Structures are given as structure tokens and as C-alpha cells.
Amino acid sequence: MSREGHMSSRSLWGGFCSGRFSWLLVVCAAVIGGEIVVGVAEAEDASSSLNSLSTETYVRLRDAVAYQVSMGRSLETACAQLRSARSLAPDWPEGPPEQLVAAMYRRLTVPPEVPRSHPRALALIGDRYHDPAYIRPALEAALKKAGVAVAFLYDVRQLQPKLLRHFDLLVVLRDGMLWPNPTEDDPYGDRVFWMTDEQEFTIAAFVWSGGALLALHNATALRRLDDGESLYTRTLGASYAGHGQPGEHYRVHVVTEHPVTHGVRDYPAVDERHWPKLHVDDATLLLQAVAGNKTSLHGFVRTFGAGRVCYLANGHNREILESEPMQTMIRNAAVWCLEEASPHRTASGGASVR
User: Fold this and answer.
1) How far is Cα 50 from Cα 75, in angstroms, rounded to an integer?
2) Model confidence pLDDT, tens digit, residues 260-270
3) Residues 6+ apart with CB under 8 A from 182
4) Which of 169, 197, 256, 338 is most exposed, with minimal Cβ within 10 Å?
5) Which domains does the chain show, CATH number per domain?
6) Model confidence, pTM
7) Which residues pair with 153 in a beta bridge?
């Protein structure tokens, strides 16, 4: 195993019925006149060079490129952004070689390798405000304790039925925005909302037919940046309704004894406090955030069709994700969500989503 380990949508809202490998020739690059020039032989050499990097250097390069991919940036833009990344490795004083950036970009913009063992999780992570470099290790640690093999996805274009059908659990820690076109005046440029109707349907049908969903932190904003109704809102059970400042101090109160909160007591948090809006009446409230005289929803579980759903609001920084309460709850949530998951169920499953 390497290191990186259609559904019909005739009716997407109200009542509807259930129902690449894309050969991406983005390869090694040489910069001539500011353009990326493709060469297959060089691509093979660059891919071999990736495998010869030290683990530390490989991870640094992977995470740097993954951040660019998670914002929807092209290879040329990613290369341009990383020319100034001189801290990636001591022997790259002028930034990482662009042929290595191109080879890593190729690895991260095709469907990830499906783990051999079950249960399997697909983790969709990283956005402008949440660097995948801090998210991945924390999820790896917690899911390993849960006995779940995980593959990571940074390129939102790959979130398709043909990939998701191989997994039992979808974990999300990212929002619904891309920032593909930075400019000299604005390092991010204009935002673009990425989720298509088909992708929204894919997630809903996956859960409805027995798949599991673990949504973290800003995953409430995966489809839209308000508290309006959507198919994703119906699936998750809640929507994005705002957040506080990063580094806010508050307490998290465990409201309900539940398998997800087993072993967790009230705990202090230093995080960006989100206050999602609940849209369903069948959710079990697990956690409540208390900040002065303000309280807000901080975690819940529910079912959607044959699948289980859990939402945990913490996750804006490495410290909170790696904290004992969050590691325990992510592990517990994965186990609980998967208890009712239908093994080897496909994303096009036989259920209808109502």
C-alpha cells in the first residue's frame, strides 16, 4: 500500500428515489515562461523522488500541497504559492522543487487509495481557515483507536458515488468554500461554493442507505453559509448559524450520558465556538457550550434513514482536536456511528430518500 492510503438525482428535495476513475495527467513540471510544462518521463522520476523523501519532509510537502488543493487551486497556482515556502525543508532554500510539488499535486487530486480493511472512513478535510496539517494527525489517532481505517480527501471534486461507495463512514471537517484565484492584492481572492446538487444527493443517499456521518466543527457550512433549508441540512439535522472568535474561552457541558460521551466530563475549551441551528426534532443533544451567560448547541446525534449521524462542534485548532475529551468523543462517535452501518453498502443503495 502506498503512503496515501452516479447516481441518478431526478428529485433532490422533497421526495426522491435512490437510485472518475478520472485519469488526471497532471504530472511533473518545469517552469518555462511561468507556465507548467507536462512531461510523462519526468513525472515518473518525480513520483519516485517523492517516495525517497524522508517521512518528515514528505509529510510537510504533502500538507503544504494539500492546503492548496483544499482551496481548489490549480497546479500552476499551487506552485506559485509554494515558491516562497522556504521552511518546508532545509535543503529547499528557494522553496520545494516544482516537479515534486506537481507529483504531490497529482497524488492528492485523484481518488485516494481505498484501505484494505473494514470498517473504512473517508475524511474530507481542510479549507482556507482549517489547515489539513493539524487535522489529519488528530483524526488518524482517534480513528485508529476506534479500529477504523481512514483515507483522506482534499480535492472536493473527488467526492463522488464511485468513491464513497467503498466507505462505511464519512468524516467532514471543512466548509463549502474554495478560494482558487489569489491575486497580488488579495492572497485568497473571491470565494466559490463548490458543492453540486449531485454531491449533496450523494451524501444524503450514502447516509440514508446505511452509511455513517461524523461532522466536525464547521461541517455545518458544507452546503451554505446560512441557516436555510437544504438536503444536506436535512441529512445532518443542523445548519451553520455563526461562530465566535478563535481562542475564545468557554466550557463544554455534557448534557446526556451516551456512548459518544462515555468517559467525558465537562471540560474547558479554547476554540472558535460555533452555534449551529438545529432543524430536526429527533436529535439527541449531547453537548452544550457555556460562554458567560450564553449557551449554544455543541454536539448531538441522530439517525437519517438507516444511517447514524453525529456532530461535534470543536475543531478549530490542533490543541482542541488533540485534547483528551475530543479524542475520546471522536473515537466513540466513530464506533457508535458504525454500529448500525450496513456493511459493503453502496452509495446508490436501494433506499429512497424522503
Assistant:
1) 17
2) 999 999 999 99
3) 73, 77, 81, 188, 189
4) 197
5) 29-108 (no CATH), 120-339 (3.40.50.880)
6) 0.85
7) 124
